[in-house]
């Protein structure tokens, strides 16, 4: 890629690094001001500084910012960065620009775990843990089904993912069919559409470690995604162990996706749309796409969550907003920049 604002001499420019840091930070500050009770940016900064450095608590602004809005902002940052990173990884891994974080059936398995937990009346944190276990189990089944030593293992992996996803979708539908239509079914339906209403520091502490570990692994090994994007013969000529490298990326992206879905339900389009936007800015080199995707994904999810809780009296599901905003944007990108999306 030619030198430009984002990349120069095969490195991010200082201006690009500053933009990637400031984008989610600025979005977080602005969105903490927005809500049913509007606040100014200085008020938000003073409240955060007072709580952090002077231990000031008990005020109305503290309750609104620190107890209500900040956990949602932090969860949005983690979920947005994680889903985008996982989506970019699968798109590079399978050389498919339409690959999404749930391509191996992890979302379907996680949703079954959450539905089951809701049916047996578990708490929010227990629901999160059960959903995470089911999500990881679904991908383990996919990997077991796709065990193959020939060059078509990636194809078998995708097919196994489709099969397992369909199976868990059917199980989930059966469980919803048996749910109480007055109490359990509405709760299940709302959870599946995605929401940050249950965001809390405890929930973040439980769900975020696997996401952060997965992001770190992908970030440190991101240059190898360029090799895995090549043809089978070209990738083998590089000298890396393709099978083990693919497995590492699959496990890292799976940990991210399962944890994200277990924390907030299904959130579509983020892992599909944002990696394409990052490629438009940086080119197809995953050394640059991954960091740009993390920044864009975090900022995008902050904005989506703020819209979900502020544009209507009733909080809107995240997946509804991401689809409404994501589909037209993606269509526009396909029309204007089709070549850059490949």
Description:
The chain is mainly α. The protein contains 14 helices and two strands, in the order E-E-H-H-H-H-H-H-H-H-H-H-H-H-H-H. It has a two-stranded antiparallel ribbon. Strand 1 and strand 2 form a beta hairpin. Helix 3 (60-93) packs across helix 13 and helix 5 (124-145) runs antiparallel to helix 11 (242-264). The two termini are 14 Å apart.
First-residue to last-residue Cα separation: 14 Å
Biggest sheet: strands side by side, in what order?
Answer: 1-2
Low-confidence parts, pLDDT < 50 over ≥5 residues? Answer: none
* Whole-number mean pLDDT: 87
**Major sheet characteristics:** 2 strands, antiparallel
- Gross geometry: globular
Order of helices and strands: EEHHHHHHHHHHHHHH
From the alpha carbons, calculate the radius of gyration and give it in angstroms: 20 Å
User: What count of helical segments does DSSP give?
Assistant: 14
Strand proportion, as a percent range, falls in under 5%
Short description:
With 342 residues, the protein is mainly alpha-helical.
SSE map:
Layout: E1 7-8, E2 11-12, H1 14-32, H2 41-53, H3 60-93, H4 106-119, H5 124-145, H6 153-178, H7 184-192, H8 201-220, H9 222-228, H10 232-237, H11 242-264, H12 270-282, H13 286-310, H14 318-336
């Amino acid at each position: 890629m030619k030198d430009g604002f984002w990349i120069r001499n095969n490195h991010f420019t200082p201006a690009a690094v500053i933009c990637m840091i400031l984008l989610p930070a600025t979005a977080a500050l602005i969105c903490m001001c927005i809500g049913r009770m509007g606040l100014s940016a200085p008020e938000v900064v003073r409240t955060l500084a007072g709580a952090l450095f002077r231990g000031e608590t008990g005020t109305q602004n503290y309750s609104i910012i620190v107890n209500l809005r900040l956990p949602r902002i932090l969860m949005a940052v983690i979920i947005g960065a994680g889903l985008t990173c996982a989506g970019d990884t699968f798109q590079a891994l399978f050389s498919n620009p339409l690959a999404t974080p749930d391509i191996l059936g992890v979302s379907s398995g996680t949703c079954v775990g959450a539905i089951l937990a809701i049916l047996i009346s578990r708490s929010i944190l227990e629901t999160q843990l059960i959903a995470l276990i089911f999500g990881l189990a679904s991908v383990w089944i996919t990997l077991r089904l796709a065990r193959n030593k020939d060059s078509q293992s990636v194809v078998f992996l995708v097919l196994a993912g489709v099969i397992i996803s369909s199976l868990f979708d059917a199980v989930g539908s059966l469980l919803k069919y048996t749910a109480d239509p007055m109490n359990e079914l509405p709760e299940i339906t709302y959870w599946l559409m995605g929401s940050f209403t249950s965001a809390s520091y405890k929930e973040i502490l439980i769900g975020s470690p696997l996401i952060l570990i997965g992001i770190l692994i992908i970030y440190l090994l991101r240059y190898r995604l360029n090799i895995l994007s090549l043809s089978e013969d070209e990738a083998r000529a590089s000298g890396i162990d393709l099978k083990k490298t693919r497995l590492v990326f699959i496990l890292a992206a799976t940990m991210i996706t399962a944890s994200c879905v277990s924390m907030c339900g299904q959130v579509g389009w983020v892992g599909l749309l944002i990696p394409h936007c990052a490629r438009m800015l940086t080119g197809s080199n995953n050394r640059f796409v991954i960091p740009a995707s993390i920044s864009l994904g975090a900022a995008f999810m902050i904005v989506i969550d703020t819209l979900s809780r502020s544009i209507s009296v009733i909080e809107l599901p995240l997946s509804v907003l991401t689809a409404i905003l994501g589909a037209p944007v993606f269509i526009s990108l396909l029309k204007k920049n089709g070549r850059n999306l490949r």
